[in-house]
Amino acid sequence: MIIHMSKLATPEDQNRVLSRITGAGFKYEVIKGATGINVIGILGDLSQISETYFEDLEGVDKVVRISKAYKLVSREYSSADKVIDLGDDVLVGGPGELAFMAGPCSLESEDQVMKIAAYVSLMGIKIMRGGAYKPRTSPYSFQGHGVEGLKLLATVREKFGLKIITEATGLHYHVNQDGVREKRNVLENVIEYADIIQIGARNMKSYGFLQELGILTKMSKQPILLKRGDSSKLKDFLLAAEYIVANGNPNVILCLRGIRTFEDEKFQRYTPDIGAITVLKRESNLPVIFDPSHSVGYRVNVPGVALAAVAAGADGLLIETHNDPANALCDGEQSVTESQLADIKSKADAIRHLLV
Amino acid sequence: MIIHMSKLATPEDQNRVLSRITGAGFKYEVIKGATGINVIGILGDLSQISETYFEDLEGVDKVVRISKAYKLVSREYSSADKVIDLGDDVLVGGPGELAFMAGPCSLESEDQVMKIAAYVSLMGIKIMRGGAYKPRTSPYSFQGHGVEGLKLLATVREKFGLKIITEATGLHYHVNQDGVREKRNVLENVIEYADIIQIGARNMKSYGFLQELGILTKMSKQPILLKRGDSSKLKDFLLAAEYIVANGNPNVILCLRGIRTFEDEKFQRYTPDIGAITVLKRESNLPVIFDPSHSVGYRVNVPGVALAAVAAGADGLLIETHNDPANALCDGEQSVTESQLADIKSKADAIRHLLV
Amino acid sequence: MIIHMSKLATPEDQNRVLSRITGAGFKYEVIKGATGINVIGILGDLSQISETYFEDLEGVDKVVRISKAYKLVSREYSSADKVIDLGDDVLVGGPGELAFMAGPCSLESEDQVMKIAAYVSLMGIKIMRGGAYKPRTSPYSFQGHGVEGLKLLATVREKFGLKIITEATGLHYHVNQDGVREKRNVLENVIEYADIIQIGARNMKSYGFLQELGILTKMSKQPILLKRGDSSKLKDFLLAAEYIVANGNPNVILCLRGIRTFEDEKFQRYTPDIGAITVLKRESNLPVIFDPSHSVGYRVNVPGVALAAVAAGADGLLIETHNDPANALCDGEQSVTESQLADIKSKADAIRHLLV
Amino acid sequence: MIIHMSKLATPEDQNRVLSRITGAGFKYEVIKGATGINVIGILGDLSQISETYFEDLEGVDKVVRISKAYKLVSREYSSADKVIDLGDDVLVGGPGELAFMAGPCSLESEDQVMKIAAYVSLMGIKIMRGGAYKPRTSPYSFQGHGVEGLKLLATVREKFGLKIITEATGLHYHVNQDGVREKRNVLENVIEYADIIQIGARNMKSYGFLQELGILTKMSKQPILLKRGDSSKLKDFLLAAEYIVANGNPNVILCLRGIRTFEDEKFQRYTPDIGAITVLKRESNLPVIFDPSHSVGYRVNVPGVALAAVAAGADGLLIETHNDPANALCDGEQSVTESQLADIKSKADAIRHLLV
Q1: In angstroms, what CA-CA distances link D92 with B267, C123, D77, D120, D166?
Q2: Min CA distance, C326 vs chain D (Å)?
Q3: Residue A142 and residue A139: Cα distance in Å, rounded?
Q4: Contact (Cβ atoms closer than 8 angstroms) between residue A271 and residue C273
Q5: Torsion angle of alpha carbons A252, A258, A259, A261, nearest 10°?
Q6: Terminal Cα-to-Cα distance of chain A (whole angstroms)
Q7: Exposure of B219 by Cβ count < 10 A (0-12 exposed, 13-18 middle, 19+ buried)?
Q8: What secondary structure does DSSP assign to D272-288, as a single string?
Q9: Which residues of D are less than 8 Å from C231 in CB distance?
Q10: Can you give C291-333 as a three-state secondary structure string?
């Protein structure tokens, strides 16, 4: 870490910085600048110290970190690709097959779930998604079937051998449409039923929740798919993953899903952050999954963006599909049909083979 | 609500829309367009129905809401300004005095807190802020003193007669620097100690948390200050407030704090959303407070932006101040000094008197 | 076009709208809403009327366009892909080969240009880029060699049979490093030398320049590559193309190059707008080229993003390459080496064959 | 300027940097870091060298400028506020009265212009705005009356003694609605008629145009009001002003007008960049004017934002007003009425007196 003192810094300002450095157990060297500006280099492993610890001091102009703010999730810390093993030869990450995760936005009925599971499974997709708890912008929108939905997913796992990914929306107690509260909180329920626990974009900065999640899955090391917040910087995204890993669970999958920009929602709901794939693959050793459905918001744009993600180096895709999108309870507009999904899968696999 | 069907919509598409409307208990009228495009008007109170309920259907091009998505927090629902009474003649909102809330970013020591409380109180400021739980981007940054901090605030209240605002960061259990977990969750602790419960920008979209907050304060109706997420649209901000109100607690204060844009962080950490004050005051009857400290991130910019907020019609200011900013444990760079605070207060009061 | 009147509109407001409609030569139908809100449908070809013509009137709440604001460049106007023929079997657009355009950011010396032209040509690339006029953020940065650079490009064309694309930065007179003004303006010079005239992102909204460009190339119909402004909406990008076409030159190539977002420049200079490829290919019949170099700003990210663009359906790539990037006068950091370029070309061609 | 070499930089990389420094006529000192990373300080006046001159070199991690990229427009270069004298005691900038500039978006008819001039003048406003050339997003929108409009402005000046500000949209030749091209280019015409030449946001990055503008007004030193591009960083805005000043005309007025963000256009067309006022006043000695009309886009938001700008320290306001906004040919929705303008003026003056 290198501290640039300001032109106007007094000797007292500098002493304050130096004593904070030694107080934290580090050594330093002061580099006297010809222009009267001093630069202070701090020596040692600073990965657990935040820039702001020095930046907030009077007389400090700028703090430049040489080592990264995130450590445990960084490529420097561990250069080999992390491969997450879900059992039964289902892997996420690494040089092998792409990981496909597909299913409906929300679990609606047994009939719907079984139909989708059947065609998803037949295509050779190994992981099914489906929302039992839905984070909705309006308190008046459908919030998901809760535990009943999770039980449907358990049936799917048993019947089709699919692995299950579903979202844990928080530490609160779900209230169903009749006003009845569930007995356990949402995270506890999802931990019981899911093979992969999904954390949504809206909770990426709920740091207390991430910490609790790390602690509660410390023993089981259940895989966690963490979605990027729609306006979070990549550094903050990696730090959110670091929260989970630093609290005990190293099995984190990064998932990109589009960012908020000035783009017109009529054309694209969010801007697909395809370039971030190349950045994350270089900065971190964690698997990177791409969600084209939420990125674009319209079915017709999904295939092109899905293939682009694979060409850019993504380890897999998380796609919404529906057997009857026109009648979907939620996000029907962005769900692909069975035949579109099959087409995406075959082309994506072909691009993958061409590149690896 | 007006539904525009697409040019390519089939009669089946239209029937599907019509049956969803009648199924939800509403009436409609179909307006046949000369260009072959039909427009469907839905009649009745649709405030509790989301646009997506129709937008997701096949053949629907666009849904235009005439009444708002948010209802209970809207100016249309209740045109009079909501005034929140904290007791002892301390009011937030309405045509009276500006509400000032000032204090340190984080509670550091009894000495610091008492010094700041003393000068804040002497200036005639009635509400003190201070963070016992700090949401930090890095898991390695200082996370606050927890319950010990809350107890300090209780002492301040007793000694100086100040009202207390402090943040509840979630439903998790705080872990102190020795690794010990608190016995109750963060929200439970803050509910016990605070006069105003602050919900931070990072949790504005943690809808389960907002719902739980509404339910847990349904009886007490403890005032809640809700901060806008740094990239949330104003409609989503108002819907987040609606979550709390719809779950039982109408005493919500809206707080703006800067939005994320392409601006260079060197000049401004966030872009102060001053224009949003005029929009919120028109759309909603809730009090609107402005936080200049987090908006700009640098002490030198705070006074100008604080006064701008008052000139634009804000009902009060939430400002970080520190007796010794150079040595602050957190956000020292953006905390104003005692004399700056006094200057802001007198000028802000003068502008307020000029305008009301 | 459908005009939604506001709840508070008076009969006078409505009459004003109706007479503006008839004054412009159109017919209308008024749809009386049950809630007292009227909707007015305008009949006829409104492609040459802007929404604001009605939106600005008192009492108008919202104007929804059914037909598009852009007409001549729209897929609806002409559904077949436009193919631009540069002569000698070099095509841009259509179902054939990808169009590669590669070369240095700026033309530095004869030696540099010849070396690059040699390897570009050997790879089978048919179009060479190179900047003789450079739009620079700082008045003190190197602004290009002007006409001397254009002459170098002419030599390249003669020697290697490459087609030439180079930027026209405006209608001003270039001043060289000795303070001498050129005799003709920049556009006139570029028109003389280029096979494709490039219009940069910074000038996408210089509407007077676009109009002049259309007029000056009306007879020659020289192809024009128009880059998207870094914060322009897709609708505005298509309207900028419409400016050129409506003024007489239909041979426009659309080029995406990254948009400005909140992303950290350390990781990506701009955010690659890959999703926009799928939108533009659907909305317009013009060829769509992608520039990965300016999108990402760092050489290491270029290959992944280039291949992503091809997978998403781009008709070609515009790439910066340099024989010695470490010593480039401009943008060396984002220029790929010869071997990287060869690798991108072979993989991009393979993906193209797989998809078309 | 301080150059941080990367961890992986070779001795050759470093030598390349050193020889580029000495080649440019500067001295350096190399600071050897304990971690093996070297930092190179460059000594001397580097205001005319761009960071990219070194950043583009291989092995360079980051270049930190201590002195600014802009020089002539910086507060460091000249600490006193620049006051621009329009004659007849009309000043822009400095500690005196606010500078108000008001008038219609576009010049429509003699009757309209005279009515507005009359009430503007009567309020004590000294500068009238009005567009003869209009930069429009669509080629089919009304583009202004050209020279005819300029002549109307000249009449206003003569009759009411008002100073005139009007926009020069480029170096092209205006084509009127009958298809006739004007004899001189737009800039030449505006130079003849205007007291202040306005450069619009869309041309802020048309660097060739800015250069030409500086050269053509080098002798006259006619004041130029430069608007910030809707997505340009403040550094780039100041560099655009530097372009004009470095080419010979020091009389530049900076004008803020809202930036493009993710905000919903329904509430605000652009986000008013009020915070930027405090930054510009500190960084530069040029006058800073605020345009609330284009920032917000809706009349009802204009007064609050206008007063906020004054409270934040703006030197004046540029406001659109119309005698009959409901029938305005352009931007009627954002034009304030006569009585609103009078109210803004009296309150803004009162806030100014309170603060200066």
Answers
A1: 25, 59, 20, 17, 16
A2: 5
A3: 8
A4: yes
A5: 170
A6: 37
A7: exposed
A8: --HHHHHHHHHHB-S-E
A9: 230-231, 260
A10: CHHHHHCCHHHHHHHHHHHHHCCCCEEEEEECCCHHHCCCCHH
For the sheet with D38-43, list strands across it: D27-32, D38-43, D2-5, D60-64
Distance from CA of B312 to the nearest CA of D (A): 4
- Beta bridge partners of residue A32, listed in sequence order: A38
Asked whether the predicted pLDDT for residue A31 surpasses 80, the reply is no
Beta bridge partners of D74: D284
Cβ–Cβ < 8 Å for C94, C81: yes
- Which residues contact residue D228 at a Cβ distance below 8 angstroms, ignoring those fewer than 6 apart? D201, D204, D234, D237, D254, D255, D256, D257, D259, D273, D276
CB C214 within 8 A of CB C243: yes
CA distances from A138 to A64, A95, B50, B243 (A): 42, 41, 7, 7
Suggest the residue from B172, B233, B252, B270 to mutate for an interface test with chain A (most A CBs closer than 10 A).
B172
Chain D residues with beta carbon closer than 8 angstroms to that of B347? 354-355
Q: What is the DSSP string of B119-176?
A: HHHHTT--EEE-BSS---SSTTS----THHHHHHHHHHHHHH--EEEEE---SS--B-
Predicted ipTM > 0.90: no
Q: Distance between CA B31 and CA B64 in Å, rounded?
A: 15
Are A82 and A281 a contacting pair, CB within 8 Å? no
Burial call D62-95: b when 16+ CB within 10 Å, e when fewer: bbbebbbbbbbbbbeeeeebbebebeeebbbbbe
For residue D232, CA distances in Å to D151, D163, D202, D238 come to 33, 29, 10, 10
| Domain spans of chain D, in order of start | 2-64, 84-355
Instruction: Judge: domain B84-355, CATH 3.20.20.70.
Output: yes
Lowest mean pLDDT among A121-130, A280-289, C67-76, C332-341: C67-76
Q: Are B74 and B283 in contact (CB under 8 A)?
A: yes
Amino acid at C288: V
Question: Is the Cα dihedral D201, D202, D205, D209 positive or negative?
Answer: negative
Query: Torsion angle, CA of D347/D351/D352/D353, rounded to 10 degrees?
Result: 100
Q: Which helix (H) or strand (E) holds A303?
A: helix A302-311
- Would strands C60-64 and C2-5 be described as parallel, antiparallel, or unpaired? antiparallel
**Does residue C77 carry a pLDDT above 60?**
yes
Contacts of B203 in chain A (CB under 8 A): 205-206
pLDDT at D48 over 80: no
Judged by average pLDDT, the poorest of B39-43, C72-76, C113-117 is: B39-43
Q: Closest partner residue to C56 among D236, D260, D328, by Cβ?
A: D328
Residues 6+ apart with CB under 8 A from D122: none
Count of positions (residues) in chain D: 356
Classify residue A157 as exposed, middle or buried by CB count within 10 Å of its CB (0-12, 13-18, 19+): middle
Please name the residue of chain C whose CA is at the shortest distance from the CA of residue B33.
Answer: C41
CATH fold for domain A2-64: Alpha-Beta Plaits (3.30.70)
Torsion-angle region of C93 (φ positive above 0: left; ψ -120 to 50: alpha; else: beta): left
- Shortest CA distance from A42: residue in chain D: D34
Searching chain D, which residue's CA lies closest to the CA of residue A27? D34
Q: Which two tokens stand for residue D6?
A: 């990367």
Task: Give chain B's radius of gyration (CA, Å).
Answer: 23
Q: What integer is the mean pLDDT of A129-139?
A: 92
Residue D283, C-beta contacts closer than 8 angstroms, at least 6 positions apart: B267, D68, D74, D75, D234, D238
**Cα–Cα distance between C231 and B217 in angstroms, integer?**
44
Return the percent helix, strand and coil in chain B, to nearest 5: 35, 20, 45
What's the first-to-final CA gap in chain C, in angstroms?
37
| Higher-confidence position of A161 and C78 | A161
Local confidence band at C251 (pLDDT 50, 70, 90 cut-offs) = very high
Q: Which residues pair with B128 in a beta bridge?
A: B102, B164
